[in-house]
Task: structure prediction
Amino acid sequence: MRKRISLLCLTLAAIGMLAACSSNSASTEEKSKKKSLTFVSNFPSDTLDPQLNYTTVRAGIAETLVKVNEQLQIEPWLSKKWKTEDDGTTWVFEIRDGITFQNGKDLNAEAVKHSLERTIKESEAMKSALKIKEMKASGQILTITTTEPLATLPSELVHPNTAIIDVDAPDTKSKPVGTGPFKVASFKPDNEMKVKKYKEYWGGEPKLDEVVLTFNDDENARTSALQSGEADIVYRPAIESLNTLKKDSSIVVDVQPSLRNQMLFYNSRQEAFKDKNVRKAFDVLLNPKDVVDTALAGQGSPANGPFLKSLDFSNDQKTKIYGPSEAQKYLEKAGYILKDGKAIKNGKQLSFKLVTYPYRPELPLMSQMLQSEAKKIGVKIDIQQVENMDEYMTTKNDWGIVTYSLVTAPRGDAGYFFNALYMEGGAFNVGHFHEPALTSIINKLNKTVDQKQRNKLARQAGEIAEKETLHSSIVHPNNFVAYRDNVKNWVTTKSEYYVITKDLDVK
Result:
């Protein structure tokens, strides 16, 4: 009897062990089927608040009413259609039915209204750009009235800062709740974030289960992460590594002309840069071709204006003479005399602080090149690197020049650039320039719907900005991404707005 009981016990134990093994095997198998991807970028992110950062849209967490496609044309997103019947003062947007936030709340016009109200409350730049006077919500219909005719309102609503979120969610900075295909799982500022798929996404269930996004401003570290297999996609690997990466059959390298412009911003609050001739001196000091060859290792093209020459509103390309001797002529017009190797005016050498930032590595290199060339004409430049350039140049007044990387036409239109750089309250009017003639043209541009007329006005605005040298366009860098060959449906976008999408996949 005891033997029978013992045998029974052994049998049951064996069955239990097999069941456990079977369970573990199933669990392991289930885990192995989980689709995960690691993306390493140079986009710093100390917050996920969409009013302060683009990451919420880039990571597929939140969406805007409209978006821009690869042809830089505006198309529907959360809003399925829109119209204006009074030349751009009153706009009616119809919100798609059947969309929910990632907490299950329905998306309706009232929710969109509350989100946009927060946008213009939290962001002075977006308040200035959107010019919203009043919003009314009824069901899925949102009516926006602007303070003046604004033909570009749909284009402005592409901006990631206008991302629609649930304003009642408890932690907008670390865990915003949007309508996108992925929701926040965890977030470590300026380090890492994890997102997991939102199965009920209105556009269809995402193909990936989770995505890990890490932030690293060291291009060599990003490259190593890809080569070692730690990363699946790397945004902007080291330029000098591109040829090596192209030879690796397990890696795909995608190089596209970008809408970016590496620029010099001038500070008109500094006495020296109030003088147009001083600005012109630095406008011609660096040869853009040298910057492409040296700082960009050939991955870019010289800029002769803020926009790619292929765009309809780009100004005619003008030939300039570059170099220290040409720059010296403008300094002399400004009253500076080269004495004992120093550019002197009123007994003082021309000297100032140039501010740059590291996560676009070509910018510090370009800054050093400018410093070296400036020394040849007797100008002393002190270079300072900062982590948060946007905050520094908008709150500090101790700089003469900043080197900056700006997507000048992210929505395929010139309005963004001119409004942001040269209108009062513009997000990038850090130089505090005010040119009445330019302001007048931009106001006309903002009220004009006809595209041909808009292009004509944009070219006129560009001519004034160039004549007054309110900024200097140096180079257009290429946009390049490297990813492992098991990654599917990756798209390198010109706008750089959309990174993690529902269609992104791994095999």
Summary: The chain is about 30% helix and 25% strand. Residues 2-32 form the longest helix (31 residues). The mean pLDDT is 91. The longest strand covers residues 471-484.
